[in-house]
Amino acid sequence: MGHVHSIDELADARDQLATADHLPLLGSGRTADVYALDDAWVLRRCREGWDTRGEATFMTYVREHGFPAPRVRPDAGLAPGDLVMERLHGPTQAEAAARGDLSPADAGHELAALLRQLHAIPPRPHGHVLHLDLHPENVIRTAHGPVVIDWSNAEEGAPALDWAMSALILAEVAVDPGRAEAPAVRVALTALLTDPPPGLAPALDEALARRTANPTLGAGEKRRLGGAVELVRASHQGVCDRGTGAALAPSAPPDLG
User: Cα(111)–Cα(171) distance, rounded to whole angstroms?
Assistant: First the structure.
């Protein structure tokens, strides 16, 4: 294990994160940046300073029940938007698929297996732990197996919503004419939807409402949501027509305000 930075060092780091001169930047997402502390730990900082304590609680809970999520280091004195967690080594599922190490169908089946494993964990007071952002960019394929990252959207609820969110996120890529990987993602989507839990139709309406309200999605992305929903329904219907799964009939259109 490499050098573990002290709280004083992390405090100094927070003052300099705007320039990131002192810590290697490993990656940036829509809302956060990830910096290397050493070979064992990373510092993830939410740019808006969102409180990460709930996220850390969910990650710790699922790890305690054997689910592959990064370890969280409970350092005192961190800013609300900072989270120190295990550094993972390996490609994302998306990277592995792009270079041919993982077939699109196997990627979809792997996502489905992770969702089933997550929802097999004993529920918390208000329902099962839901990740709500499980897609190929949020799975790191380490030497010890896939590990799920980015638990910032996690909450408690019914498993069907988790499946609907994953399916819709995949479909958004699949209907984007500017994405070269769109055909492969369609295959992954079909594999994901082989055997979803009951209640997917109303959950898909809820997923659409949430994605529509998501402030990190651009106007073009939101315009494609309707087509993405139809692709989810069609993909699942295709699975049903081949004799697997229950038909996903459209429910009443959601009231998006």
Answer: 14
The three-state secondary structure class of 192 is helix
Closest CA to 196 of 160, 228, 234: 160
**Which residues are CB-neighbours of 242 under 8 A, at least 6 positions away?**
none
Query: Nearest-CA neighbor of 12 among 40, 37, 49?
Result: 37
Partners of 82 in beta bridges: 45
Two structure tokens written together for 45: 């900082």
Give 244-255 pLDDT, tens digit per residue.
555 554 444 333
CA dist 248 and 239 (Å) reads: 10
Residue 19 clears pLDDT 50, i.e. is over it: no
The model's pLDDT over 50-89, given as tens digits with 9 standing for 90+, comes to 889 999 999 999 999 999 999 999 876 788 889 999 999 9
